[in-house]
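Predict the holo structure. Ligand: nicotinamide-adenine-dinucleotide.
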Amino acid sequence: MSDIASFRQAVETFISARGWTPTRFGRTVAGDPLFVFDLREGREPRSDTRTRILKAMQDFGDGETQTPLRVGVAGLGNVGATLVRILQKDAADLTRKLGRQLVVTAVAARSRSRDRGIDISGLDWFDDPVALAKSDGIDLFVELIGGEDGPAFAAVKAALEIGRPVVTANKALLAKHGVTLARLAEESGAQLGFEAAVAGGIPVIKTLREGLGSARIAKVFGIMNGTCNYILTRMGNEDISFADCLKDAQALGYAEADPTFDVEGFDTAHKLSILATLCFGYEIAPNEIRVEGISRITQHDIKVAAELGYKIKLLGIAQRTDQGIEQRVHPTFVPKGSAIAGVDGVMNAVALETDHVHELLLAGPGAGGPPTASSVLSDILDIARGTRVPPLGVPSHELLPYKQAPNRAHDGGYYIRLNAKDVPGALAAISTRMGERGISIDSVIQRSDLGAKAVAPDGSPTRTVVMITQQTLESSVRESLAQIAADGFIVGEPQLIRIETL
Ligand SMILES: NC(=O)c1ccc[n+]([C@@H]2O[C@H](COP(=O)([O-])OP(=O)(O)OC[C@H]3O[C@@H](n4cnc5c(N)ncnc54)[C@H](O)[C@@H]3O)[C@@H](O)[C@H]2O)c1
Ligand SMILES: N[C@@H](CCO)C(=O)O
């Protein structure tokens, strides 16, 4: 019997053994997407598709008990070790939910002997994650190594190329290679899940791809980095330095291997670029984002913000405009009473503005082993159930070439903190320069407890001055500050933070 004839016979036997009804010849209503194809003459699936279908039928077993789904995990750090622990601990519950066992059968990590609080003694060991990704001993590959290139990219690519489903939590990888990987997955028929890559435990990817699959989204914004939100919250509540907060965030497993990605805003930019693609259907463009992090925020900024009725949050904002997509990441003064201001600690929040649902706010833990592993697991469950969606919400060939909108001038209030020379007339001169650019000052705070005093090059003492402007253009503020610096009335770089009403 020819290849195709024996394939056709195997599928027909499989279908009729289950009492499924073909809607027309060769097409079933089994509900299993693998069987939604046409077997008419001349429409036969390619041989690699046939191989995958035969394998899926084999896995399906007798319809009552399926063969286990064998999971290979690369990277046993904070998230990877937590995932293995949950998969081992909750095995019975997961099997009941799925009707199929999920078993970790193989791992790739750097050190075999390191104590991670999990038992990996019975698992296949791989030094090389690419070899694990391609191994015949697994059905699904989970990448939890991190990094935009290197072994993470090589292993994910290798798995997708052979049609093996992949789950990853790696936003840096997706921001850089997401379109390539989605295309590879679509070509080979493999699923690619990355729920954990954005906002930790919040199911925002699933919400955008499925729940809001038909919605037209105008704007997405939010707090997308747990480490930064944790640092800003603790600095606001306690007398603790930026460096100590960061150390604690690292110890709690929130921060990236290189925490610069967190505190300088790049991690938020990676996540924002992924969300923007899912929201607006353009190719991923992490390099088109204006990014400013929180490393220059002082405890004094946070305290003054509180006195004035604000909190400081690192926001990622992307919106559709007539000229393309605008994306930015920066610290922002948000009113204390706003929903986003109530999102504290490691919590994240993603706000969506849509056509029919209008406004939606998703909030939850944005980092840490258990919430992140929970999102990884939800992707694994989807794959085990055969759920199929284009990784980026629309087929990758339908993505529009990215079109960058010019950053619109923010037309709102500003917080300005500067070290002004403590000499007669300095403040008046500063106000005059601002007035020349049409900037109205709402309030001025000069207090001795606001920041370390610097000494001007000419030996004059300085004092910290905080100004809140009324609605104005950022360009006007920047021009006047440059002029004030040139006049010699300030020392060092002024701090400038947008105030958004949201
Ligand atoms: N920690 C979080 O809260 C969180 C949340 C969401 C997403 N993520 C993402 O999940 C991924 C993992 O994060 P993490 O916090 O577990 O990081 P981690 O640094 O704790 O773990 C990564 C592990 O990969 C291992 N590794 C490095 N090179 C390897 C190689 N060639 N082969 C096998 N293993 C290798 C490292 O030794 C380390 O143990 C990253 O992409 C991260 O951005 C993390
Ligand atoms: N370092 C990231 C992990 C979650 O993506 C954060 O702090 O949000």
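Residues 171-188 form the longest helix (18 residues). The pocket of L-homoserine (ligand 2) is lined by residues 200, 225-227, 254-256, 262, 267, 366-367 (CB under 6 Å).
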